Amino acid sequence: MLQIIPKISLLNAEKEFEKVIKGIELRGYSNKPPVSVTGGINWALEANEIDPLSVGDITNIFCPSRRDIYMRRVLKIKDEKNWGRVTGQFVESCICGFTDKYKDDTSISNVSTYEILSKKARFFMADFSRKNKKAVAKLAKFKTSPDEDENWLLRQLDYALRHELVMLRATRKLSGNNPNNDVIQHMEIKPNSKVLGISDSTPDFVIPGFSAIGDIKTGFEFKDYFRLAAAGYALAYENQKGEGNDINLGLIYYFPTRKKDISFAHLYIFVIDDVLRQEFLDRRDEALLIVKEAKANHKNITTFSDRDKHCIYCKYLSECDKSRKK
């Protein structure tokens, strides 16, 4: 995540997208529809008949029919560990740990060669792997296909960390060696859940100085719904902080955890405009309605999705298969 500051600075995003940003109306501090929940959903939240949902509940759209919401929030079934879930946690821990180690390191600007930067990345990976050797060993047991390879994953992390240090060095050179204190990791956000329908939220990083918020995402390929997480966090942040604390930019640090022809970490930067915000709010209302109706009538549950097309990597696959066989 050390590459975030130089890339946003280079893009000059807020000026570049100034017209779009000025047109944003769906702010989290706007306590009226469509930002606030209404009707039966509002009543159910106020009466504590349903709980607010997390940004992850709303935006991690593993199942097109949102049966995953029903499994997790109504039946209270714990999701199974699989390659995607375990490697996602592993990658996030590695990237965040690396950022914590080097974000305030001003000596990077004195490094003269790429070989030295590469050595720093290798040493960190060796130390991280040693400290997490049990987690590394367990990765193999979750493999279900040839494109899931723990050794390949570790190499990709090593390459990604090298790039992070290169970008950090560039930042130090351009900024007069000022420490990179702008990226706040795992800030806890407490919105008004009765109004917004969103529970306490913890994005992977917030950069107030750039009016930006974001998340680390992993998987086989970048999914468009990843951007919805940034929209949800932006609304929650604005709701808690109030006017004058706008979030305009979304950031997704995407790291592939399965082999592809071209595999490397990407940083996506985008405006959290009203189109994206409205899509998140629609998804929020859809998810809350599923929970409300399912709790009122357990027969009113979502349908199965196409197993071969959507379910292979889903953490609720085995549970749904049990119901399919009935």
Q: Can you put this structure into words, describing what you see?
A:
With 326 residues, the protein is an alpha+beta fold. It folds into two domains: 18-73 and 189-324, no CATH class; 83-175, no CATH class. The chain has 15 helices and five strands. The protein has a five-stranded mixed sheet. Strand 3 (212-219), helix 12 and strand 4 (249-256) form a beta-alpha-beta unit. Helix 6 crosses helix 13 (274-296), helix 8 packs across helix 9 (133-139) and helix 8 crosses helix 10 (150-175). The longest helix has 26 residues, at 150-175. The radius of gyration is 21 Å and the shape is globular. It starts with a helix and ends with a helix.
Mean pLDDT: 85
Shape: globular
- Strand fraction: 5-15%
Count of distinct strands:
5
Q: Return the structural class.
A: alpha+beta
Gyration radius (Cα, Å) is 21 Å
> Biggest β-sheet, characterized?
5 strands, mixed
- Share of helix, binned: 40-55%
Strand order of the largest sheet: 1-2-3-4-5
**H/E element order:** HHHHHHHHHHEHEEHEEHHH
Task: Give a quick precis of the structure.
By secondary structure, the chain is of the alpha+beta class. It contains 15 helices and five strands. It folds into two domains: 18-73 and 189-324, no CATH class; 83-175, no CATH class.
